[in-house]
Amino acid sequence: MIHIKEGLVVKILKNHDNAVEVLVNINEKNYKAIAYPLITGKVSLGDSVILNTTAVDLNLGTGGYHFVIFNKSYNTISPYTNGHIMKLKYTPMQIKNLTVEEQYPEIIDSFESLNGMPIITGTIHSMLPAVAAVIKSIMNNCKIAYIMTDGGALPIGFSHTVRDLKKKAIIDCTITCGNAFGGDFETLNLYTALIAAKKIAKADAIIIIMGPGHAGTGTKYGFTGMEIANNAHVISSLGGVPICIPRVSFADKRKRHYGISHHYLTAIAFHCLVSCEIAFPLFSESKKNYIMNQYKKVNLDKKHRIHFLEEDTLSIMKKNQLYIKTMGRTMDEDPYFFKTAGACAVLLTKLLS
């Protein structure tokens, strides 16, 4: 059940093109909130707004934000986008988008193959800066396209990471597919997102990862990261080579996520139907033995090609001032999560060269 409250905008905290962070007063207490102009129109100081407060009320992981549903200062909002394709369809928030499929039908129809292009895909949004920064550091003039699926947050404007990576020219364009929205290009599905990245954005490197807010339930199959298997299927079916980033941590004390996460092993060892490229960083002997025992137990190495590669991910991220956390842990507290993503980025550059 949705929790709804009315609040007054008392301060504009940050004003971005696709997301506005505000401070709202509800019953004489101030809270952070986010408005998406595509949905709410502009938000200004003194506006009375209707808020979805569900996640904060339930203490869920949205960064402590409420979300603006409606701005009472407007009786009507005129959309400033063309197109006829709806996202968030059949909900009160459905919005129209001008999609690649509508704009470039001849490119979609004439597409034949990715011609062996290696494409990297992961399961957690915090992998993105490590991958993108390492690729850019090795291939300085490389044009990187980020495809955001709809497995996590749907508005790309929610991601501070994407905004920062674009500002620093580490990623060059964004594509939101499915019900995700707000990218430089909009597509209906991952197939057309890949075609758009290759043929329209002219990307040299492509990264597919969901937005912030992956979810898990502690059950074998109940987690959003299962989509990585289907991402690999789509890449392969279009003639690309999937590189699937392992989720690795020696800082997570939960047994199911220690070393290689069971999320990754479930998806890639048991339910991925195509052969993928997988990279790990260089480990100490004890850590490498632990990782190898994990993947050999499920025959991961019999199905996929595994590499151990030197990388310099942490220093590259620090040089670019990308101080990212994963599951609340910094890169120094959980280095192998980021180093593994970086190793896959190194592999991508090797396959591209």
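(ticket continues) Second input and output from the same batch:
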Amino acid sequence: MSEIIRSHGFTNESLDWDAWLDVVELDKATPEQVAVLEESHPKAKTSDYYLFLVHQPEILRQRSAAFNAIMYAPGGMPRAERELSTTVVSRINGCVYCASVHAQRFEQLAKRNDVIREVFDEPRTAGTTDREKAIAQFSIALTETPGEVRPAQLQALRDVGLTDAEILDLIHSIAIFAWANRLMLNLGEPVFPETVAAV
């Protein structure tokens, strides 16, 4: 992270997340739960989010497989653009935690954060290029009015150079964050660094 950005309650800082409901205690987890945690994410065994979701290990297994395929699969839309899209979706949905994580991922991949500041300040005008602006606008449209996307909006993405495969990746990224944001927003809350330091 080259600089800390805080705007409208959003940040690119690393945040913790606390579950509001009971999480699975790792020393009491079943072998299946442990296996699912291990295949889900490198930090799953210490994350309240994963330790709560593993109450239903098969759902977490399927969720993690879909998430990882959508966000990390090679080819198609560049990963930085997937991260930009999911940061926009998280900003629109009000998911501070997801926005922080994916803002950091964008910066790691793109080696810049200018567009992240724009997303946090005003997502509707965000984008340093026509392609980024089109990605942000489409991410907002699909998030706010998912049943109203029309062919002209897909053509606008093609007009800035997205291939059909990249458009599909973009839609997958936006869609899975409708799910991810709702889990994070309704099962717990983000914890800012100064809150952790004060405890």
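Agent notes: The first strand starts at residue 6 and ends at 7. The chain has a mean pLDDT of 96. Closing as not reproducible unless the customer responds.
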